[in-house]
C-alpha cells in the first residue's frame, strides 16, 4: 500500500479473502483511530457488515498488544538475521519478509494449525 487512502479498498479485499479461505466472518476491527479508518464510508461499511469497531486511544500502541507483540517478534528476528549474516541495511525489507513467512509456518499454543495452513 503506497497511500493511506488505499486502506478502505485493501480492507474490503482482505475481508473477502479471509472469509473465503476460512469460511468465518470478521467480527471486530481494531484500529488506532488513524484517519484512513475514520471515513464515513469505512465506518458505514463496518456497520453494514456487522463488524464491531474497536478504537484504541491515539498514541497508545501498547493497547494493541497482539499486533505489537508480533511486531516486536518480527523486529527481533530481523535484527538477529541481519547481525548474524552481516547484511547491509538495504536488505532489511527482505529479512522482514522472510521472518514473516517463517512465523506463519510455525504452530502456536492457541491454534492447532499454522497460519499458513489456515
From TrEMBL:
InterPro entries: Integrase_cat-core, Retrotran_Ty1/copia-like, RNaseH-like_sf, RNaseH_sf. One of its GO terms (biological process) is DNA integration. GO terms for molecular function: nucleic acid binding. Residues 1-118 form the Integrase catalytic domain. PROSITE patterns: INTEGRASE. It comes from the Eukaryota. This is Integrase catalytic domain-containing protein.
Amino acid at each position: 500500500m503506497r497511500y493511506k487512502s488505499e486502506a478502505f479498498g485493501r480492507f474490503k479485499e482482505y475481508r473477502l479473502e479471509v472469509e473465503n479461505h476460512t469460511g468465518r466472518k470478521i467480527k471486530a476491527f481494531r484500529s488506532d483511530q488513524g484517519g484512513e479508518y475514520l471515513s464515513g464510508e469505512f465506518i458505514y461499511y463496518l456497520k453494514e457488515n456487522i463488524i464491531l469497531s474497536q478504537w484504541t486511544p491515539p498514541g497508545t500502541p501498547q493497547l494493541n498488544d497482539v499486533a505489537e507483540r508480533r511486531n516486536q517478534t518480527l523486529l527481533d528476528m530481523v535484527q538477529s538475521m541481519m547481525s548474524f549474516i552481516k547484511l547491509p541495511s538495504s536488505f532489511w525489507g527482505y529479512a522482514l519478509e522472510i521472518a514473516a513467512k517463517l512465523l506463519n509456518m510455525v504452530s502456536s499454543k492457541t491454534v492447532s494449525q499454522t497460519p499458513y495452513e489456515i
